[in-house]
């Protein structure tokens, strides 16, 4: 008999909770990854950098495992079908993995667990993606928090020592005739220019994070989003580092968990406003204006620079994400779901809970959102955070003479009117 460890969004061999539990289980462990066609078939771009990133992370895992006489088995297909094959091919005792809190993932895991049970195989999942999950942090009346500040206070109170898991490499199953992992082409994707680098916690950035994080030209944030998304870095190690170096950065990691638990407790937010009343806002949804926003042609330099950074790199600085999202929902009165979907297609660090939570925050319809009447003024934001136009010039080189799509004062009044009418 063997055990299987199923990698998903935890693509690392160090400090991996589910993997270490599997390795300590007493049976040899066969590591498996499934390129899930249910997810991949929905990606529009065959040169999606995120798929290439995952692939490179898996290649590294596979190479490392080979040095321990083992390897990584990769498959392409629907996980249910793959497990139907695996239970025939191997005598499996338990399938180990780490928990995922997205509604689709929860459904998938339930189906896989049922299938395994029918075949007398156990399914054992662990907390790894977060420090606190599900009902770990609740209000005194046992309901989930929907406001960040008290949530983060309780989160910090609950935090005790952080356990780091040691990987026992001697317990991986020996694979005799080792085949390489599937190639990108085998799963219908192409190589891109993205280069996987081992994520590292940069002391220089994190020590002065609080001072500089809001100035997009300084690019003074960690860019660990993609590593946290796919688990190539351990959140436990990040939190340990944050505790030693920066409370402000720790708070960002708590925001991540806050939105994850919101998605877990309120899965309807995937398609709906957290505050239901906001469904009544009559969005204008002008398609030409949406296109101009996507292409960075709104005539507002800071908005356009941000969208071009996103289109060219798959990243956008947080401050500018807030400005562009506010502009779309308030100035143009375009449904936040359109913007959310656009970001989802482009962001390398795209994460359903964080993207949805932040978009709803920007639109005013989310939990703990700023009141709707606080509308970002792009010019004021530029004065505060990019006064020398360093960031703007970087992304809008050369002549820039777009006429503003809409005048700020007018757009502001229109947004206030529209929101007020819908909400009262
Ligand atoms: P750092 O500033 O170094 O922060 C460290 C980590 O903390 C981030 O990598 C991320 O995991 C987490 N974090 C930081 N801020 C937030 C936040 N506000 N909410 C949740 N987690 C946070 N973040 C995503 O990870 N995925 C998304 O799809 C995403 N979409 C966003 C959409 C909008 C409209 C806005 C306003 C913000 C969005 N964010 C998203 C949050 C934030 O902008 C990014 O996490 C951050 O810019 C990533 O850069 P970094 O890795 O350098 O982060």
Q: Topology of this protein?
A:
Layout: E1 2-7, H1 17-23, E2 29-36, H2 37-40, H3 49-66, E3 73-77, H4 79-89, E4 92-98, H5 103-118, E5 122-126, H6 148-158, H7 203-207, H8 209-212, H9 225-230, H10 235-245, H11 247-265, H12 287-295, H13 301-313, H14 318-331, H15 336-346, H16 352-363, H17 378-385, H18 390-395, H19 408-423
Parallel strand pairs: 1-2, 1-4, 2-3, 4-5
Bound molecules: flavin-adenine dinucleotide.
Describe the structure.
With 424 residues, this protein is an alpha/beta fold. Helices cover 47% and strands 7% of the residues. It folds into 3 domains: 128 residues, Rossmann fold; 97 residues, Alpha Horseshoe (Serine Threonine Protein Phosphatase 5, Tetratricopeptide repeat); 154 residues, DNA Cyclobutane Dipyrimidine Photolyase, subunit A, domain 3. Helix 6 crosses helix 11, helix 11 packs across helix 16 and helix 14 crosses helix 16. The longest helix is centred in the middle third of the chain and has 19 residues. The protein is globular and about 70 Å long. Bound molecules: flavin-adenine dinucleotide. Flavin-adenine dinucleotide binds next to helix 9, helix 11, helix 14 and helix 16.
């Amino acid at each position: 008999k063997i055990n299987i460890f199923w990698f998903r969004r935890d693509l690392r061999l160090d400090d991996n909770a589910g993997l270490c539990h599997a390795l300590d289980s007493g049976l040899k462990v066969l590591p498996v990854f499934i390129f899930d066609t249910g997810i991949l078939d929905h990606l529009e771009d065959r040169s999606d950098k995120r798929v290439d990133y995952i692939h490179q992370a898996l290649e590294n895992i596979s190479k490392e495992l080979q040095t321990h006489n083992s390897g990584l088995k990769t498959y392409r297909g629907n996980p249910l079908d793959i497990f139907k094959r695996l239970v025939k091919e191997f005598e499996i005792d338990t399938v180990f993995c780490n928990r995922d809190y997205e509604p689709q993932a929860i459904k998938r895991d339930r189906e896989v667990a049922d299938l395994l049970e029918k075949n007398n195989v156990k399914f054992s999942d662990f907390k790894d993606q977060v420090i606190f999950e599900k009902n770990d942090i609740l209000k005194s009346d046992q309901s989930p928090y929907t406001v960040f500040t008290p949530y983060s206070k309780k989160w910090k109170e609950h935090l005790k020592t952080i356990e780091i898991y040691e990987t026992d490499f001697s317990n991986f199953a020996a694979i005799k005739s080792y085949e390489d992992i599937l190639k990108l082409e085998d799963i219908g994707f192409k190589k891109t220019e993205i280069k996987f680098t081992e994520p590292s916690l940069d002391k220089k950035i994190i020590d002065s994070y609080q001072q500089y994080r809001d100035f997009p030209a300084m690019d003074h944030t960690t860019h660990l989003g993609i590593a946290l998304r796919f688990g190539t870095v351990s959140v436990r190690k990040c939190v340990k580092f944050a505790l030693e170096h920066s409370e402000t950065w720790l708070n960002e990691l708590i925001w991540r968990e806050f939105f994850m638990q919101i998605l877990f407790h309120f899965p309807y937010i995937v398609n709906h406003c957290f505050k239901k009343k906001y469904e009544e806002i009559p969005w204008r949804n002008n398609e030409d204006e949406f296109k101009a926003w996507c292409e960075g042609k709104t005539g507002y330099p800071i908005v356009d620079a941000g969208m071009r950074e996103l289109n060219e790199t798959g990243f956008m600085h947080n401050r500018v994400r807030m400005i562009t999202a506010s502009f779309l929902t308030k100035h143009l009165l375009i449904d936040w779901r359109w913007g959310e979907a656009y970001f989802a297609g482009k962001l390398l660090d795209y994460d359903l809970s964080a993207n949805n939570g932040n978009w709803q925050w920007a639109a005013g319809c989310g939990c703990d959102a700023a009141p709707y009447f606080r509308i970002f003024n792009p010019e004021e934001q530029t004065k505060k955070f990019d006064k020398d136009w360093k960031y703007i010039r970087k992304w809008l080189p050369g002549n820039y003479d777009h006429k503003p799509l809409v005048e700020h004062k007018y757009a502001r009044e229109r947004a206030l009117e529209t929101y007020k009418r819908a909400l009262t």
